[in-house]
User: Fold this.
Amino acid sequence: MELFSLPLAPRHPRFPIIHRPISRNPIRNPRFPLVAASMNHLGRRRSGNYSGGGWVRTDPLRNPLVLAPVRALKSDAGIRDGFHGGIAVGSAATVLLAVMNRVLYKLALVPMKSYPFFLAQVTTFGYVAVYFSILYVRFRAGIVTREMLALPKTRFVAIGILEALGVASGMSAAAMLPGPAIPILSQSFLVWQLIFSVLILGRKYSLNQILGCFLVTAGVVLAVMSGANKGQILSDIEFIWPALMVASSAFQAGASILKEFVFIDGARRLQGKPLDIFVVNSFGSGFQALFVFLFLPFLSNMRGIPFAELPAYLKSGAACFLNIGGNQIGCEGAPLLPLLFIMMNMAFNISLLNLVKMSSALVASLAATLAVPIAIYVLSLPLPYIPEGSSLSTSFVVGAAILVLGLILYNLPKSAKELKID
Assistant:
């Protein structure tokens, strides 16, 4: 009696191998344990007579018993290439939440206009407690397994470092750049994602996808530029500050691609079981908060707050945020507006990461980018606490049209060859 793989079996056309379904109670000889093999080892060499996949135990006295292989492919983890209905719904939800997130952030800054740094730290450190609480509940419910929690933490450390560097460099550059230049330079995020996606994930993009990404970037730049003053908005700025803002986008793009890698690698390690998004959210946010805390003296100085005065600033920010009794001057709208923003920002981040899991980091970024001109349009309307509306120029409409054209071009149907998983 011998155990061997199918490709070694005789393949004479007159003697086909006969299979039968797997028995629910197979008879096992303890001297000959049954072994399951990966489809990657067998799938490419199976013959026309082979239909089960896996290892075959042959016995002259019994019919062969075929074992189903264990697969850990991208499709088994719920991570699919192409643009199907689930991704369309997820993208639409992400766009809607992104627009509401931007609008509510603007509204939250009405009462918190003197404390934007405080609001940023509340979102950074507060999310750690919220995400880990949700992770604990999901672990107790059996949704999150010990195998998920045991995944290597080095990639989460890398994500945390990259996101903290993105925050630090972005704040440093934003302090020296004119307002309209910041969202324009931030559009290099898509370009960095294309580059890192090819280098880290080994993805291949068609010409229409690359052109679509650049059209999206051009459309956003044109739409944002519609509100800028005439002339060269970076003419009096040293080169180091625009370069630092572009580097900030590179750090954040690298973090987003690493998150996509964690989902794909996690599916392989978990033998096809999809990795829960709150594992990635919790550990990624935890390490980001850790490194932001280490950079806190530097970040506060970049915001014009000496580190020695930071405790007093945080105390005043907390008083304005809570606005107990509604007696804080200049804090009208708190705590309702800041709390609405925090809840919406959390929902947006969860939706964005879920879209990364369903499709890719680049598709998620394109969905979030589509929200930029929509949010600008919404903010041009009279809103509570911001009753002054504004008119939009022709260049804004043209830029928005170019952006939508880029999204359509990126999502054109692919050929069967392009849909293959690399």
Summary: The longest strand covers residues 55-59. The longest helix spans residues 240-269. The chain is about 60% helix and 5% strand.
